Give the backbone structure.
Amino acid sequence: EWTFSRFESYLEKIEAFYSNSQAPNRPERRIRAYETDYRYAALGALYASGTEIFGENGLRIDTPEAIGAVMFIDQLMSKGLMWTERPNENGPQPGWTWNSRNFASGETVFTDCAIWLIKSAANKAAERGQSVGIVPFPRPDHLSADDPAYRQTGTIRDTAGILKGVSKEKTELAVKSFRTFFSTYFKALAGTETVSGYKEKYLESEALNFGFDIFHEKTGPGILEAFRYISNTPLKDTSTILGLFKEWSLEILGKSIYGLDSSPKYDVAVKEKVSILEEQLDHLEAILKSDKINDNVKPKIEAVNSQPLAFPVGTNPADLDFSELFTASDNVDGPLDFSKVAITYDGVDFNKIGQYGSGLVMSVKDAAGNEGTAKVAVSIYDDKSTQPPTVVFKPELRSVKLEEDASAINWGKDFIASAADKDGLDVKHTINADLSELDTTTPGKYKVEITVTDFAGNEAKQTLEVTVK
């Protein structure tokens, strides 16, 4: 019975029930029936209607099914049953995941939640004495529940692409390795070689991990069944990877819903603008069919080590050999001749002690003309100084957890407020902790000696008292 009209009728009841409500955290706001990101609601409606933006049959945004799906979303918006918060009311762009944030705050009953934010939303709901469930996107009234055209969609998390120019042999080896890894992975975890087998074995724990209330006395079994159905729905939407989703969802869908730039409704707007996406696809197809390798990746300039760049005051930059400190490389050309790197020092005064953020700028081009740049912070210090640096501990020190890996503790972040030489230059990067007396396997208080060395080689030692509990 979960159809477009049934859902709309349900939203009307919810909207009426909460018409004079106040949101839990922001009483100036009311609780809505369905606040969401209209783009993903429309995508859900497309799949539920048996179509998509782009699929095996090409571009599908102007089919009768797609138009019907969008008109349903438009109808909900026009009736005030669905709402999307936008940072700029003159533009179609929704606030990114704002609907998920507002859902977590109890400001809407339904939403299309970002998958990585569901658990935190469920935790916040639990703090209010509420719980979170999941339902499939409803289907058009003319489709039956078991119609194969009725499908669910979600957000594609990870994708793998094969760069043009990679050999067929290497590609086949990569794909086989990928399959072998995952078949081994699922066999080890669940005794199955399939994702669906793994999901079924760990169905309850996965649903609980999202925070869904599957043990609710009345709705728990239904929530679990909905989770099983949705998580096992195949997804083949490639519109985001192909660069089609943004153009479709904002320029065509969004502007038609809000009437921006004098846009007509979707059924007319999509006919007028479908050529934009068709041109994108033609351009992409031409690139893929050509023999030309299109290198549009900038080369990289990277430091040989992670130590900050520091020079004695009075250093002549013309005497410095930066090829010993940095390397230049390109994804296609490989290592680049460092003599081709252009270096400017305009942001650094080598005759004045101080720290110059992004003061050194380096740039280099690859064979395709792509230019990569690196902006580097530089410290100019007094190499004649004999005065030790100063170390200031934080006023409140955190305790060390029992069995915590002492070697992984960030002493500079967790325990040291500042470490500087006589001129105030930050030397936190030199912090060294003597852990010989620290035993994280036994609760108690321990001495940890901290050593800091400034750029001129002067040392300062201070002792911390650390509590293990």
Summary: Residues 266-289 form the longest helix (24 residues).
